[in-house]
Structures are given as structure tokens and as C-alpha cells.
Amino acid sequence: MIEVKDIKKSFDGIEVLKGISTVFEPGKTNLIIGQSGSGKTVFLKCLNGLIEPTSGEIFFNQRNILTFSKDERKKLRSEIGTVFQGSALFDSMTVLENVRFPLEMFSSFSMKEMNARAEEVLERVNLTAESFKKFPSEISGGMQKRVAIARAIVNKPKYLFADEPNSGLDPQTSKVIDQLLHELTIEYQTTTIINTHDMNSVMEIGESIIFLKNGYKEWYGDKTNILTANNEAVINFVYSSQMFTKLREVLLKEKENQLKK
Amino acid sequence: MREIDDLGMSSIGLVAFISLFMGAVVAIQMAQNFENSQIPVPKYYVAYATKVVLILEFSPTIVSLILAGKVGSYIASSIGTMRVTEQIDALDVMGINSPSFLVMPKIIASVFFNPILIMMSIGIGIWGGYLIGEVTQLWSKSDYIRGLQMPMANKFFTYTFIKTIFFAFVIATVPAYYGYNVKGGSLEVGRSSTAAVVWTSVIIIVLNLVLTQTILS
User: How many CB atoms are closer than 10 A to CB A213?
Assistant: First the structure.
């Protein structure tokens, strides 16, 4: 579990995060949503340790990571898996080497064991052996995302972060990536936090959702109640597409009918 | 090994080509200068002067400046691309000391391999002088070999070696600094590569003067 208390972050005097408090539960896909510039990426980077918050507390399993020693931080980092927006695969390494890399850094496995584990997770994300020896530039964007996910889970992390995992992918591939992240969250019981502004992802895997607006936590809920949320910013965000606007009308009518009964 | 290949082995062809022609040009210039001199200078001094000039200045400094362009832009752009594509963030989030992970192998490869390149450059440059003598017949083969055998102060070799090590360090670190601190996209990577080459060259030239004054005087 990750608990955040009153996190604030400023850059050159401009406050990007203005005091966010929330809880991310394990075994659930926790989504951070919001418009571009709402502070999602900065918030995620505070959580995975890439940025130090200006103030506030971040607890990983009841332990405040901001007070961790260097060794404690290093150990914690070995328990974190991150999927970056652009996959961030190492260009000079093959698919297999990319996935094996965290094991080389953190495990005491033999090369044979590391290869076996890397191949196991690559197969878990539905990649075939013929792609293992290819370089990132030789595979599609969807495959790169799968490799990035495989690299993030190869160390069996307790915490999994994904920043816009669907950006640049077609709707069908996006759905596959969403499902994969959801399945892995349940399988490894990770505390998974995903940054997204894709409403399809929200409706697919949004078991817990926080909505950020201008650095504040504007709304909290899940996929079952976001469509009928009574918050103007959420309504504007969710119903920016015609399809969802019509869906809202249907849902509100249904709700009204139920109340009448 | 990959770094040695990227930073050193891949430069062998360029260094050999430049050194061959540089040696030939230096030898012709020396011969012309000696011929026009009011004090008669024996022909075998062409080889001696070519050897000294290559060892003291042309090979260590000019080749290092060329490597600053070739290797420096490669280091700055490759690290810069890693920065803008979040590959460095990926290393950081794994708890890996990214500056050390990325820069140390380059420093080791450069400091280890550049002296080899410079020695090679000196050898090929001297050979270039010999070949141009054979083609132009401006000096004889025996004069050239005699000149090469003339003794030279050991201090010169020490000076060249120290210079090369310092330049190798600058070639690896300055571009790495520029690449590592890139902010933005591909345009900024290009700009940082250019800045890295310019500043590496400037530092090499200034350092050359400082080291020459310190070691030779």
C-alpha cells in the first residue's frame, strides 16, 4: 500500500502539486487521471522517487520513504517497476537484454537463470522467442510497451508505476496493454499506479481513480461512479467525447427512473 | 568492450587516414623550410623534425581535436538521446547511479584507447613522411631513416603521454556532461552535441598551452 499525505511540489516558485493526500491499495489498478498539465506526471515521479517533493509524506507500507537512508532507498527501488510513456528501452540492448538488465543489477542469479526468468516474463506478456534477439527499433510500439512491462515486472516488484502506457497505441493494442497491467496487478498483488487520460482505460481497469486538476485532488472514485460523478471538472473531462455524453444522458435517465420507482 | 569499439576502434580508419597525410605534409614543409634556410641544414633533419613535430604537437593535439569532434558528438548525442527518451530516468528509477554507469566506461575506454590511437598516429605520420619522400625524391630513404634514428629527449614522450591522457579525459567527460544535462527534444540534443564539441575543443587548446608550459618549460 502507498499512502500520500499533503504532497506539494514547486518548480522555480511555481507550485505544481498543491497538497495531495490519497491512498493506493495493493492488488488494484489505481488510476491517476486529469488533463495535460494537471500535475499527473510530477505526482507519479514523486511517488517513484524521480523527483523529491517540496513537502509532505509518502508511505510505502507504513514507512515514510522521504526519511529513508541511501541503502533503504536502493532496496526500495529494487521493489519498484516503472513503465515509461515512451517505453524507455535501452537502444543498445536487445529485447532479452533489456528485460534481463534489472536482474543483472539486483539479483545474484547465474546468467542461465537470468535468461530463463527474462524469457518467462517475455512470454507472460505474450512476446514470442523470435523477438527476443531484436533491438527496440526493430519492433512495433505495442511490442515495445510489452517489453517495458516485462522489464518492470521481471524483479517481481511490489509497486508498479506506469506513465501513460497507452500513449501512441491504437485502441485495440491499448486494451491489451490495459488488460495485461490489470492481470499482472492481481497476479503479483502489486500496488499499481497508472497515469492516463484515456477514458477507455478508465472504464476498463479503473478500480480506484483520483482526478487531478491544477495540482489538487479534485475527485476520488472508481469506474462505476465516474460516469455519474457530480463534479464539473470530471464531467468536462469525461464527456469531452460525444459517445460518453450520450452515455451520460442514458445513465442519468436510468438513475432518475430508479429513483421514481 | 562495447565502449572501446564505439569510441576507439571505430576511429582507427579516420586517424590513420589523417595521420598519413599529416605526416606527408609536415615532411614536405620541413624540407621546403630547410631548403630555403640561410644556414645549411642536412636532409636527414627532415625526418627528425617531422618525428618531433608529430610527437610533440600534431598527433596528440590535432588527433585529439578530431576525436573531440567525432567521439565527442557521439557521446553527447547518445547520452542526450537517452535523456530525452527517459532511458536515464529508467536507470535512476532502478536505483542505478546513472552518471557513473554511463560516463565511467567512456572515461576508461577513452583514457585506455586514446594513447594507442596517438601512438598509431605518430607511427603512420612518420610513414607518411617516408612515403612522400619516395614519391617526390626530395630526400633519400637513407637520410630519412638516419633522421628518425636521431635521439630525442625522453621528456618529450612523457609530455605527449600526459597530454594524451588529459585530452582523453576531456573528450569523454565534457560531451557526457552536455549530453546528460539535455532538456527538451531532438533539437536540444543536436545543440548540446555542437556545444559539447566546441567546448571540448576549447578546453583541449587551453589545456595544451597550460600543460606545455608546465611540463616543457
Answer: 20
Angle at A234 between CA A211 and CA A236, to 5 degrees: 135
Domain end among A111, A129, A156: A156
In a domain, A85, yes or no: no
pLDDT in tens, chain B (217 residues): 777 777 777 889 999 999 999 999 999 999 988 888 888 878 888 999 999 999 999 999 999 999 999 999 999 999 999 999 999 999 998 888 999 999 999 999 999 999 999 999 999 999 999 999 989 888 888 989 998 999 888 889 999 999 999 999 999 999 999 999 999 888 999 999 999 999 999 999 999 999 999 988 7
Domain boundary among A156, A188, A204: A156
Distance, in Å, from the CA atom of A25 to the CA atom of A13, rounded to the nearest integer, reads 32
Q: ipTM score of the complex?
A: 0.82
Closest partner residue to A105 (CB to CB) among B2, B82, B96 is: B96
Q: CB contacts < 8 Å between A and B, how many?
A: 44
Instruction: Decide if B90 and A84 are in contact by the 8 Å CB cutoff.
Output: yes
The answer to whether A91 contacts chain B (CB < 8 Å) is: yes
| Spatial distance between the Cα atoms of A198 and A129, rounded to a whole number of angstroms | 31
When divided into structural domains, chain A yields a total of 2
